[in-house]
Amino acid sequence: MTDRALAVVRAGALTTVQDRGRPGHAHLGVPRSGALDGPAAALANRLAGNPPDAAVLETTLDGCSLRPRTPVTVAVTGAPCPVSVDGRPVAWGAPVRVRAGSVLDVGAVVSGVRAYVGVRGGIAVEPVLGSRSTDLLSGLGPAPLTDGAVLPLGAPLEGGDAYVDVAPQPAAPDELVLRVTLGPRDDWFTPAAVRLLTSCAYRVSPASNRIGLRTTGPALERARPDELPSEGMVLGAVQVPPDGTPVVFLADHPTTGGYPVIAVVRPADLPAAAQARPGTPVRFVAVRRR
Amino acid sequence: MRVLPVGAHALLVEVSSGDEAQALHAELLRRRAEGSLPAGEIVPAARTVLLDGVSDPVRLTAELTALALPPVPEQARETVEIPVRYDGPDLADVAAHWGVSAREVARVHAGTEFRVAFCGFAPGFGYLTGLPARCDVPRRPTPRTAVPAGSVALAGPYTGVYPRSSPGGWQLIGTTDLVLWDPARAPAALLSPGARVRFVPVGATGSAA
Fold it and tell me: pLDDT tens across B28-72, in order?
């Protein structure tokens, strides 16, 4: 069983283990965490022949290199990038067989931010509160990958190879359009600020991370100066800190917060947010609450 | 009571006091346990309770608006006792804010029955209420870059215990060896919303250096 493992040859800028996270513990201050681009992580699992809740690797911009100790099927999805085995190019977005001892290299992304590496059997680190996800806000789950680390793999599902050979994937956005419903605290802002949010071009800030997509652009003016008592926060909340530029909460967001939430992004638009590079224009579009 | 929609699948229920928020939270937990409130997360906070993962927010809004709040039930659950040494570096500052001696701060704090109003900031970090309003203290003007795990601290109306070392701006009045958060333990969090808490002094009261 010790053979079912991956050695980390090159960890990359920030590579973490992610699955579907640990929802249900927010009342204890535990973020949900989980893959930022959920559909890409699910596809990596499907291509690798895993159930959708298996843990995958989430890379950031420059990929990673891995040496399996056993022959494995892998699949790289999410941000498009060159993939090679022992220096020979192989397919991105499709199942790839890697022999024991060969080196799988996931290269720097061509567009987007985060690539996902699904490995048959799944990354089998010890779960914490039912999830193997690394939570960068609270430090739960395994630490980000380091060079030389060894990751255990789970037992593969019975029943042959991947369910699909290749699947279409959305391109990283040239412009990030985030549909929002206003509130719950839009009344804490001036009417002009609410109009500004949905009419002005913001850009993705390089300070963005798994906790939040930060933006640069015009500051949103508050209608009331007092302090908001801490309140529960949801995924996709557009929180406005004192500097006035909106932050969109992503998977590792804090469970409570004391800055007003002017609007909430539709969950379906958040995977694109995970792939928007710094500098990408962001447009918040107000929609009706169905 | 005001019910604010939050996106398409969540509601923020706003009440007028911390006590009402605790009563509302207890009632919502009761309803979820009996199966009449489908919600993935019920997150209490200072003046609100967030319901997330709600399938029919419109219907639930109507139900909640008609809700009469029962008082907080006397709980069957036992009181969590936290052994504490009142030896924190900010004990003297807190004593000055309260206008009493350091020894008196320890006496009042250890004589108070606290309740976990809500959690947040870090896994297992509870915001405990129970001190009278005259004991409110401001945060430190400059937050510390590292507050040791087990620090017992005050800020605003709240008492908290740092579950692990982290940056923090609260006034540190004491230390406990109790492990507040251990994901390998069940339950992982010693303090969950609604729990009653007492601080039990151990050893000599610190000199408030």
Answer: 999 999 999 999 999 999 999 999 999 999 999 999 988 888 777
Tell me, what's the pLDDT at A164?
A: 65
d(CA B172, CA B148): 10
Domain residue limits at A94: 5-152
> Cα separation of A201 and A281, whole Å?
6
Q: Where in chain B is the domain with CATH 2.40.100.10?
A: 79-201
Q: What ipTM was predicted for this assembly?
A: 0.93
Residue A186's region, left for phi above 0, alpha for psi from -120 to 50, else beta, is: alpha
Residue found under tokens 């919502």: B28
Contact A254 B121 (CB under 8 A): yes
DSSP summary character for residue A63 = -
* pLDDT tens figures, B5-38: 999 999 999 999 999 999 999 999 999 999 999 9
Cα(B174)–Cα(B106) distance, integer angstroms: 9
Q: Is CATH 3.30.1360.40 what the domain over B2-65 is classified as, yes or no?
A: yes
What ranges in chain A are assigned the alpha helix state H?
A: 38-48, 191-199, 270-274
CATH number of B79-201: 2.40.100.10
Beta-carbon pairs below 8 A across chains A and B? 112
**Closest CA in chain A for residue B7:** A264
Residue of A nearest to B184 (CA): A128
